Amino acid sequence: MSTVTRPPTGQAGQAKAGIPVKSYPAPKQLATITDLTPKEAQAITEAVNPLIADALALYIKTKNFHWHLSGSHFRDYHLLFDEQAEQLLGSVDVLAERVRRIGGTTIRSVSHVGQLQTIGDDNDEYVAPGEMIRRLMRDNQHIAEKQRAAIEICEKNRDTVTSNNLQEILDETERRKWFLFEVLQGIENAE
Ligand SMILES: [Fe+2]
């Protein structure tokens, strides 16, 4: 059973940040009945929740680039980033509801996302368009590795349903990588 420092919640939480709480098992009202063992459900929950945090973090980063883009490829990149952001957001609810279906608890707040995300935020004042593509490529590559690893954990713990969902989500990640890679070829050949 792992312990995490979860962001403060509710009124008590507002007074004091960083209260250590158990991330699993869920409170009994939220402990959905499942035929998976608590150990199996915990392993899956702990593999999937960081993927949700990363999808939200990368959603914001991709939208940030969509909003703060400048240059000759404006229209192409602006539309590409929007399409990719929507894909990322679409994966969030699917994964969060899988966690709840097996009795785990999932993301509760933006600060909870900050605690679980494994990709960095991007607060740079200005990022050149080619560099945006490079950064998104790197993050999507990282996310693809984490998703593939999570699929293995789901398979090992008898959760083929979450594994199937993750396979589709990984396919979308690889599509994003493919598009970014090809755009990058154009940028690097032009440099
Ligand atoms: Fe937009």
Beta percentage is: under 5%
Give the % helix: 55-70%
Ligands bound, unique: fe (ii) ion
Rg over CA atoms: 18 Å
CATH topology: Ferritin
Shape summary: elongated
* Count of distinct structural domains: 1
The level-1 CATH class? Mainly Alpha
CATH A-level architecture: Up-down Bundle
What is the assigned CATH homologous superfamily? Ferritin, core subunit, four-helix bundle
Strand order in space, largest sheet:
1-2
Number of DSSP strand runs: 2
Number of H/I helices: 6
Q: How far apart are the first and last residues' alpha carbons, in Å?
A: 51 Å
The mean pLDDT is 89
Biggest sheet statistics: 2 strands, antiparallel
In N-to-C order, the SSE pattern is EHEHHHHH
Low-confidence stretches: 1-17
Helix/strand-derived category reads: mainly alpha
Secondary structure elements and pairings:
Layout lengths: L2 E3 L4 H6 L4 E3 L15 H30 L6 H28 L8 H7 L12 H28 L3 H31 L1
The structure holds fe (ii) ion (FE2).
The site of fe (ii) ion has 2 residues, from loops.
Summarize the structure in words.
With 191 residues, this protein is mainly α. The chain has one domain (29-190): Ferritin, core subunit, four-helix bundle (Ferritin, Up-down Bundle). Helices cover 68% and strands 3% of the residues. The chain contains 6 helices and 2 strands. It has a two-stranded antiparallel ribbon with strand order 1-2. Helix 2 runs antiparallel to helix 3 (74-101) and helix 5 packs antiparallel against helix 6 (160-190). The N and C termini lie far apart (51 Å). The model is unreliable at 1-17 (pLDDT under 50). Fe (ii) ion (FE2) is lined by residues 66, 82.
